[in-house]
Design goal:
Blueprint (H helix, E strand, L loop, with lengths): L12 H14 L16 E5 L2 E4 L8 H4 L8 H5 L8 H4 L9 E7 L3 E6 L13 E5 L4 H9 L5 E2 L4 H7 L5 E6 L3 E7 L9 H10 L2 H8 L2 E3 L22 H8 L9 E8 L3 H14 L4 E8 L1 H6 L10 E7 L5 H9 L15 H12 L3 H18 L2 E7 L1 E6 L2 E2 L17 E2 L1
Parallel strand pairs: 10-11
Antiparallel strand pairs: 1-2, 3-4, 4-5, 6-14, 7-14, 8-12, 8-13, 9-13, 15-16
Helix pairs in contact: 7-9, 8-10, 12-13, 13-14
Length: 421
């Protein structure tokens, strides 16, 4: 009952129902999390503070995805609908109920938040506001932190973390997160449509080199991030074995190699460039050449439109937005994601079925067994070179207090609890 929008008006069940229905209708942003699960017909504002949600089908991760469904003030949006359901208006106006409100927004450059007078959440720190400045070069972030020009620097490189070791006034934070890095293969077009070629490449890959090039990281054990519910730490996954690699290569249409494949990576993303070089070197053992092409991210996304436009190798970082295996399984391996960057082309009816069973099964032990079967099925099909789980790397000034660990949502930091001592 204490929840209020920044306008001072109370957050009501009607606002919740309106916001969820709007998300489903627009089918953008985080709508994929509740696609086919929440419907407008299943939403009912019982009274001012009670919302009844009847799901279209059981969804074990429903409570985990709810925090990602943002609640807007219905009256404010309805008054500014325009011809796009208020989307244009909301680009420069905020109608939320969080502890901070937006004071300034310069997309791609800077966002300034101020403590809301209506803040109702408990556990807050002493911050009057937050300035989130976009600084592309991590070395610049590090120097700003060392000079005291920034209190927090997020997503630093391993080299930055080494340079900060012992730096006065700076606290290093190195912690695990659910961010997977895998190299997706074109399972529907070209030489890699053959599972034997994919397995040959999986066993030819120098995984130790992938780990070494990543700095603070550990190798993935299958498609799910290490430590998440249902992940099997004893899963039998490919590791570098050139004899096995050549056995699988012998079963393909190119038993002697002699082909040229293509790998793209995001322009300016040094870590992906290093991974590409590891793959270039690894494939030489199979007499396979690799063309490496940096592309702007929008061009990479465009290449995901069809199997014909999709390259042979496509590196992908994916962070779990919520702490459930469904997040990675559904987004990265279900065929419903085909055509998008998370899973451009891979489709396997058996894998789809297991993912759907994992979503709809509520019993934890049964879910665990389903996800164990899912992991084995994916490994057997070898759609990816399973890479690394990089550690989250950030630096804080030593007067920043009450930092809270957050394993989901890469680069996310909980600002509300923070205080400056």
């Amino acid at each position: 009952p204490a929840a209020k929008f920044h306008s001072g008006n109370p957050v009501t069940a009607e606002d919740v129902a309106y916001s969820l229905a709007r998300t489903v209708k627009l089918a953008k942003g985080n709508a994929w999390m509740i696609r086919g699960i929440v419907t407008p017909e299943g939403l009912e504002a019982v009274d001012a503070t009670t919302i009844k949600i009847t799901l279209a089908q059981p969804f074990a991760a429903f409570l985990a995805v709810l925090p990602w469904q943002f609640i807007l003030e219905k009256a404010a949006v309805e008054a500014n609908l325009g011809d796009d359901d208020g989307q244009t208006w909301l680009m420069t106006n905020v109608v939320g109920s969080g502890p901070f409100k937006v004071l300034r927004a310069e997309p791609g450059t800077l966002y300034q938040l101020g403590r809301a007078d209506t803040a109702w959440q408990g556990g807050g720190g002493n911050l009057d506001g937050v300035i989130w400045q976009i600084v592309r070069e991590t070395a610049t972030q590090r120097l700003m932190l060392q000079r005291g020009e920034a209190h927090v620097a997020v997503d630093l490189t391993s080299e930055d973390m080494d340079a900060l070791d012992g730096a006065p006034g700076v606290v290093r934070v190195i912690e695990p997160e659910y961010r997977t890095f895998s190299i997706k293969m074109n399972t529907e077009h070209g030489p890699l449509a053959d599972v034997n070629m994919r397995k040959a490449i999986s066993y030819a890959t120098n995984y130790q080199a992938l780990a070494d090039s990543s700095g603070y990281a550990e190798l993935m054990v299958g498609p799910l991030p290490n430590g998440i519910f249902g992940q099997d730490p004893n899963l039998d996954v490919p590791r570098m074995d050139l004899d096995k690699a050549k056995e699988y290569l012998a079963k393909t249409e190119n038993p002697q190699g002699g082909i040229k494949l293509k790998m793209v990576y995001v322009t300016g993303l040094e870590q992906e460039r290093r991974f590409s070089l590891v793959m270039l070197d690894s494939l030489k053992a199979l007499n396979i050449d690799l063309e490496i092409q940096p592309l702007p991210w929008p061009d990479m996304v465009a290449a995901c439109a069809s199997p014909e436009s999709f390259p042979d190798f496509f590196p992908v970082y994916q962070t779990a937005n919520y702490g459930d295996p469904d997040n990675i399984a559904y987004a990265a391996y279900h065929s419903a994601s085909n055509g998008g960057w998370k899973n451009a082309v891979y489709k396997n009816p058996e894998v789809d079925k297991l993912i759907e069973e994992g979503r709809s099964t509520l019993d934890p032990e049964k879910r665990k067994a389903i996800y164990e079967a899912f992991q084995k099925a994916v490994v057997a099909d070898a759609p990816d070179v399973f890479g690394v789980l990089e550690k989250r790397k950030l630096g804080l000034r030593d007067n920043v207090e009450n930092y809270q660990f957050t394993p989901v949502a890469s680069n996310a930091i909980e600002c509300w609890p923070l205080s400056i001592g």
